[in-house]
Amino acid sequence: MQTPILLPLALGLALSLPAAIAEMPATVGTSPWGPDDQLGALNLMTERSRASILSRITGGTVYDLSVEYFIGMPGWHAAGDPRYQIWMTHTPRGTVNDDPLQVGEAANDHVSYTGSAVSMYTHTGTHIDALNHFGLDGEIYNHFSADEHLGDTGWQVTGAETIPPIVARGVMIDVAAFKGVDMLPAGYRVTRADLEGALARQGVALHTGDVVLIRTGRMALYAHANRYMDNPPGLGLEAARFLAEESRAMIVGADNLSFEAFPSEIDGNYVPVHTYLLAQMGVPIMELVNLEGLAEARRYEFAFIGASLKLRGADAAPLRPIALPIH
Amino acid sequence: MQTPILLPLALGLALSLPAAIAEMPATVGTSPWGPDDQLGALNLMTERSRASILSRITGGTVYDLSVEYFIGMPGWHAAGDPRYQIWMTHTPRGTVNDDPLQVGEAANDHVSYTGSAVSMYTHTGTHIDALNHFGLDGEIYNHFSADEHLGDTGWQVTGAETIPPIVARGVMIDVAAFKGVDMLPAGYRVTRADLEGALARQGVALHTGDVVLIRTGRMALYAHANRYMDNPPGLGLEAARFLAEESRAMIVGADNLSFEAFPSEIDGNYVPVHTYLLAQMGVPIMELVNLEGLAEARRYEFAFIGASLKLRGADAAPLRPIALPIH
Amino acid sequence: MQTPILLPLALGLALSLPAAIAEMPATVGTSPWGPDDQLGALNLMTERSRASILSRITGGTVYDLSVEYFIGMPGWHAAGDPRYQIWMTHTPRGTVNDDPLQVGEAANDHVSYTGSAVSMYTHTGTHIDALNHFGLDGEIYNHFSADEHLGDTGWQVTGAETIPPIVARGVMIDVAAFKGVDMLPAGYRVTRADLEGALARQGVALHTGDVVLIRTGRMALYAHANRYMDNPPGLGLEAARFLAEESRAMIVGADNLSFEAFPSEIDGNYVPVHTYLLAQMGVPIMELVNLEGLAEARRYEFAFIGASLKLRGADAAPLRPIALPIH
Amino acid sequence: MQTPILLPLALGLALSLPAAIAEMPATVGTSPWGPDDQLGALNLMTERSRASILSRITGGTVYDLSVEYFIGMPGWHAAGDPRYQIWMTHTPRGTVNDDPLQVGEAANDHVSYTGSAVSMYTHTGTHIDALNHFGLDGEIYNHFSADEHLGDTGWQVTGAETIPPIVARGVMIDVAAFKGVDMLPAGYRVTRADLEGALARQGVALHTGDVVLIRTGRMALYAHANRYMDNPPGLGLEAARFLAEESRAMIVGADNLSFEAFPSEIDGNYVPVHTYLLAQMGVPIMELVNLEGLAEARRYEFAFIGASLKLRGADAAPLRPIALPIH
């Protein structure tokens, strides 16, 4: 159906298979919270967990963790997805000629009206992947099937509208700093050892229910869409298992797109870290998180507050999260 | 250019003119923060003001103040603006046939890929108006002119990307409850006396820099787009002046669309509350704020946290704000 | 997934079933042109059939059979489909501020650049339905199945790009004139007798391979989108069978949307005329064809020339057909 | 407002200035058809001119002069314009889950419904530029000004809806064949001598009111969007003057995008051939015309029939023209 499009990522399939990963059955996960559960790891957030982190906030500094949206921004265009667009629907001079509200030329001359509209792939800019974004064999996390629950305007389960506002302990793991570089090399696959080393260097431990954000340093290329997208560093599968299974993170994220490194480590699965986290573990992923301010301030532990748009049925939603210092 | 579209609001122009308002010169405001200022009242937010409210947070309850986005949702369509749309760009079965990433049928069968895209007028769902949304005589707040600063993809000043994350004291004024009704009548214009009466009933005073949210009860009709849009109750000009000039609110908002009541109180200006707040006072407006949870809990004072998408150049941006109880 | 939307058509299901229709098996048709055929009745068009009609053209009069596209135009919005939109991407003043081509202010001041973009449901304005638009039980005409041939960006068979330019004998059947009215009543279902009566009145016979266009007079309401869409007159099933089976029309069309009348005559099928023509007979349908000029001139037979946009994979495509007088 | 985007064309400005061109005043043209005229050279088409060419049609061969529309197709994206998109709004399986028409599961299972939508820059695929596409100093052809006639949804004059169906003598000038190459070299600027040489080789003369189509051979790269767009060959100014002023062409077109060659020959004007033809001479331009079939058949003279979509107010519109052999 499509003419060849230059793929920014080498979506090759690996030949070798790490033993530990090979043992993991490649089927979607069953939620321990019951057959109707649509939240997965988000169930780890409770009134108590929120109270715990909110009570530790100190001062009034705010770190803005999101990126800007603009025409030409990075995105997942290689798969044919639409690029971010913004256009004017009303302008002060245009309304004088159009008179869209039928108020007459004098009123349009006096009241200078500006309106605009946007369109975007839901995975554009700083965003969170809903659990339905990637499944296995026609099912998503907790065995909801596409054939029964996917309509032409989205999923009837686990849509972005089901994601609650996130108020949680946040931990930033600065892998780039641990490696002593500004930015991890192209295609670098972050290992479990990298995460543990960086955490030790930072003197921070992970707790159940954390929002864990990995800094690769890739954000330095954000203004250069093609370079940002070209073979980014990303997380490996064992590192992902360390976060989701051992550390019991509630959400994982990074400053890159799209979170994991390529080519895939798993034969026959081109995005195994996505399917592992979303479909097997029920752990949402955040991408394009801007961690530069936190890195500069060496702020590794914080209150994370972020609430994604409630796009009914969507497989992702943009959000503008913030980090607040804690004692 | 357009065939007649049914206007949900009677955009008539008033014949009489309240004395106090008539005295107000109908020109844009000059920022007290200097000729380069693009933030207006948002300058009232400081590290100290944020620290002050954050230190008062109690417990871990979160009120979600935003609405859902779905096809058929209410919107400002009468002016020709595009309606909210969501569509699938990738589905588990579709990718098997399309193979957009050129990974082959087996991989597409195994990895069940869902993607979607959205388009919307920027004033859709819970959102904040940037200061450039309405100006007077070709200028916006602080005398930036459309001819010099408006391009085809947005404003070069006061765009949504300039709006910082909002962390502030929030006050909800439940005018519907004060009036003893579930919902204010169609077209009802909220007065200064209503605001003062409701505040007295609630036992809450306004402070400089507050985010002030007016509850009309209109949200009860949100699922019925045409009824929600048809002649809503809204704020009057004197009430707006009470909030912006006397109470020095940083942001004002409501649960309706579009904030003010119609027909206009001012001859020759069909949205005088918008131009007063945005263009004359530099006070952003929030619309479609869901206040039902706060109303039910009789929670009138809270920590307001909301961060709108950084849509470069835009005249508005969606956000999903939350309210947190304070002592 | 959706809030209730006012349906302009009463999509009720009939209780009684005409005998002749009941006998027709409700499965998709098998093409007499072979298992790979994607064209159906369009195979009736040959170099000889085109030469035959082209040789009869007289003079230089052209009838424009298409409608205009504009914001607020009629459309099939009741099913949630996007409305027609047009917006400016470049304007003379905007480019001066944006400088999208990086040519500098002087060049942008001198060269006044205008660009625009559009979006639309493919069944917008004058258009032709491809055979994949409606099928039965997961298959379309000639047994292509959605599961095997439908991707996320369209069908891999019978897409609009497969429809050739149409050059054929055209016959307009003015049913409104035959009935002695300007416009058929709301919901009127055109019968076989109406078609035969109108043809007799016109003194025109149908031939194999014709493009047959039915005039209901509905076009008079085109400027009033809601009225145009509200319970239109349309074709009944026996009339459709008369055109497709007995008269062997290549394409059928009308000046209404959407061609057939509602409620349906067939239990369990809400668009039986569409499924009969497209899926069972392989006959494409044209809608929103502007026949007013032909009606005024009492021009019932003509050379029809129309070429729809080659939208790869699409289930319909807009076109602007013309009619040329013949001797 | 924008991050740098890779420009496929070197939009440099020339240093030298051909004498003849320098003499041409750089202001918009005044229509000889009067101050209200919006058609320019299209006035050359008359009932007589159409009759003349239609009477010469021989046989039933049809040459399809248009290209296909698909995701990833070439386009003018370097200026930030939206790329062609198509997406499904209804699918057989999706409607079963969505039930958009509220007909119930059985009816949705039985009636397999497919719908799709498209969005595109109006200059996408085979299209015609309206006269308002490029002007000079804020005015377009015949002195209509943007300030008075351009609204937020298009121009109130010379919009695409004003362009009549084109029925005219067509002449294809195969410059590539004249030069003995399959495709003119990248950036090659077609000269007047090239046109005259090719016409002599073809044994065809131009007449007033012709649709003149230049073949560069570029269409061979159409399936490779980036290569198609990268520094294409195109028409020079003197060649354009030969066509518009001396030969009195009604429309000029080519198989490339965007018609002229770059860098510009005129200091301070980055698209002088466009402004010359559209704004000074009132001659519409067609781009992306597929001339491969005509070239293969050595068919240089034909009846040209093409009718562009009536997009109200638009600066261009897609069309699918055909060529018919004549004696």
UniProtKB/TrEMBL annotation, chains A, B, C, D:
UniProt signal peptide? 1-22
Among InterPro entries, the record links this protein to:
KFase/CYL, KFase_sf
Superkingdom is Bacteria
- UniProt keyword annotations, A-Z: Signal
**What are its GO biological-process terms?**
L-tryptophan catabolic process to kynurenine
Supply the Gene3D superfamilies for this chain: Putative cyclase (3.50.30.50)
What the entry lists under SUPFAM superfamilies is as follows: Putative cyclase
Protein name per the record: Kynurenine formamidase
Show the GO MF annotations.
Answer: arylformamidase activity
| Any Pfam family | Cyclase
